[in-house]
Predict the structure of Mediator of RNA polymerase II transcription subunit 16.
Amino acid sequence: MDSAYVCEWEKRSKSTHCPSIPLVCSWSCRNLVAFTTDLKTDEDDKDVNHMIHIIDTEHPWDVFSINSGHAEVISCLEWDQSGEFHRDVSLLFWTWGCFNIEFCEGSRLLSADGDGHIKCWSMSNHLVNTWKNMLSSSVDGDPIVALSWLHNGVKLALHVEMSGSTNFGEKFSRVKFSPSLTLFGGKPMEGWLAVTVSGLVTVSLLKPGGALLTASESLCRLRGRVALADIAFTGGGNIVVAATDGSSSSPIQFYKVVVSVVSEKCRIDTELLPSLFLRCTTDPMRRDKYPTVTHLKFLTRENSEQVLLCASNQSGSIVECWSLRKEGLPVNNIFQHRSPVVGEKQPTILKWRILTTTSDLERVSAVALPKLPISISNTDLKVASDTKFCPGLGLALAFHDGSIQILHRLSLHTMGVFHGSSSTQRPGDEATIKRQRTTGPGLHFKALQFSWTSLALAGVDNHGKLHMLRVSPSMGQMLDMNTTLRHLLFLLEYCMVTGYDWWDVLLHVQPNMVHNLVEKLHEEYMRQNQALQQVLATRIVAVKASLCKLSTATAARACDFHAKLLLIAISSTLKSLLRPHVLNTPDKSPGDRLTEICAKNSDTDIDKVMINLKTEEFVLDGPPLQSLQQLIQWVGDFVLYLLANLPNQGSMVRPGFGFMRDGASLGMLREMLVMIRIWGLLKPGCLPTFTATSDNQDSMQLLFRLLTKLWLCSRDDSPPQEPDESLIDECCLLPSQLLVPSMDWLPVNDGVIVKLQGKHPLRLQFGKVSSLTGAGSTAPLEVFARSPSTQKMDNLRCVHMGVCPTEKSKACTRCGCVTMLKSPNDTNAMKQWEQRWIKNCLCGGLWRRIPPTLT
């Protein structure tokens, strides 16, 4: 485990960010981290602004700070998980062994404070650095100690035992789990649940119209003080709340909470469950040693039968792990001699049993639990142990000496250690000791959060700095390259199937691994059934593009993958404009028939291919075609660029190389040229424009003929062949016949992931982009280079924005794709294209607002 980067606040003369008490941090599966600080405008000022800061981990300096408006300190932050999988097509999992791609989790954030107020924040205009308060609820004057979104009924299990399987459905299975509350038809109802310090549980439900339905109820008849609480969910749709008054001599109480809607009103029913006493309080040697319970956590959100407890004193802590088990109830001797009744079973009772406990530890300052839903069956645990696969099996403890330990979630034995700056201090370093005495307590973490694959830790220290730590998949154990690749591949597949961001997996990919990972990922993808391949078609391209950017040897292939994403999107958009000529829709759509005819017809004459098509299906009004001309122009320029650069594809891989052997993409380009040719007969203004050296040059005919010859060399139904000499000679002559455009590939990635190859952590500063300059050891490739006088490109609309654009723009947090915030078009066809990318980029990344100087 090592540090990847540290981001700190700029030192100002008056205003200062200091960590709030308690300091809370939360990491969404869309790669957004939220944490809190208190902002003092003046050191002598008693008024404190309770701030919420939201960053994406790829651009940590681009922080969005919200003056939350909370009157008291913020005690809880919780990202939503209500949109993990699109509910309308949840049957995809059962029929195809997969999950649907649409997801929107991480777009809403709950915050709660010490005055009982809860606020729900959402993205404004789907931008990660613009947020607004959407809804709120309150229990006035009653501090919130625990907060959670209601469960949506989706639970996954990741099986390490099946990591070698070729079927994604066997590796990642869906577990039967009921939502906390359902609407008509079984649709999960959204909302949140909170526990207050006075022992009150409050539920707020989001009605379909947007209104809130709120109710409160006592956890038990005799309400008492609740210092700590946590919330978990059961497979039957119930909610379990664990609570303690903070004293280690008091019992840890558990309650079952059932939420329902009766006559348009929210109803809450509670029931007391078996409780437990800490083991350390029953040990005569430790009875009074640890008087306070400082941390209470269920091991996972969907497992209410295992709980982690930490008791502390001023200088040390002890951690215990408990499990709820069903045990037989002993029967009195009087009843043992009677004749047994057929079918009668021995009565059972639920009882908490301690799994394991640690020895005396340093004082624990923060706890982080894994989010990866790894299966903990005996076979899965054995395979994980044999292959040294550790993600999801470790929990993190941060200590007041600045160190972090990763402990096994079941046995609590140490798996890895991170030594902070204060814990690595040499005993004889008196200057450091004196400095610490004058500046206060040493550096230590006040809040920790695991990423969603457990390969990274985000922590906020007592000085308000954000730390990003890498957590090795093998916890530092030596592995051969094949095993390391298999572990990373397994987690990339998990992210690809679930839709979770794979940024933390990229932290562990070295440049020499990129090629093998891309090839192995493609092999596993091709082993899936056709339906699943279609669902994951764009997701795998986005994963490959992210991988290829990590190495200079494969950076050109990243250009190809991004171009392929745009190509797929334009193709599907143009085909969606086609309509069948007759009302009784045939078995195949016009787009499918176009694909079938173009695949069978290998004629190099574009007009002969058109003869076999029903041209009446291509009849469209003029305005839609004219408004999509810039997309059509991109297709024409791209085909010309590929063919003109065919002779240059030698030992050095250049952008476009990946398409030379991609029969499916070349076939897609042929189909679009045929469509464009037909539309050009109806509306000549929509045709792509080429600068030809001859007035009678039929550019579309020439490009289609050369493209068809190249496609015939790489068709899927025949063995691949090298392009013949005549084709290469004709492509060599292309620049003398047509002016070859300079393709504007995506801008150089300005994120941190390509800068984290070294061993030393990056030192960044919130609000300063320039703090990253020069951090990397490799210069960008020529294809990514941009001179100040270069025209800036809108990568989605395929239009130029000028050398110094003044339009407000947004950029993708993952690939760097830039596009204007406001649409310059008024036509419905172009608005339809733009609406497809209003929430996410082509690659699935989120959008962030950027100033005009960074466009």
User: Anything to note?
Assistant: Residues 82-104, 422-439, 773-780 have pLDDT under 50 and may be disordered. The chain has 20 helices and 38 strands. Residues 555-576 form the longest helix (22 residues). Residues 562-737 form one domain.
